[in-house]
Amino acid sequence: MHELALTQSIVEMVAKHARGRTVKRVTLEVGKLTCVMPDALRFCFDLVAAGTSLDGACLDICEIDGRARCVACGQEFIRHAVYTTCSCGSLDFTRISGEELRIKEYELAFDGAAQIERGAA
Ligand SMILES: [Zn+2]
After folding, report:
1. For residue 112, what are the CA distances in angstroms to 4, 15, 115?
2. Nearest to residue 29, comparing CAs of 65, 64, 67?
3. How confident is the model over 8-32, as pLDDT tens digits?
4. Burial (0-12, 13-18, 19+ Cβ within 10 Å), 7
5. Three-state DSSP class for residue 78
6. Strands 76-79 and 93-97, bridge-based pairing
7. CB within 5 A of ion ligand 1: which residues?
């Protein structure tokens, strides 16, 4: 299960950054074109976090629309699939968002928020 391996790497990374401190909340940015299911991530997160410094932490998932800019006509549009066309008929576009999968930030029990950026997986 893809989401399980993904959640394990997320929990490991946050736990490492937190250096043993209790993590209260983790915020992820998940592009809608990644094929990652937010519900599956939430389910796996509780399992994987159990017994770590993320035990009981809240998982917030921000879903990011797939946006692109058409090279032919210049308009920005929403991609509902990885392969799509602009309304002008052009297949040539620049990807703006929708394929990201990163830890936006995590919140420690006492010291407030900390930021980590993680590249697209
Ligand atoms: Zn176009």
Report:
1. 27, 15, 10
2. 64
3. 999 999 999 999 999 999 999 999 9
4. buried
5. strand
6. unpaired
7. 70, 72-73, 86, 88, 90
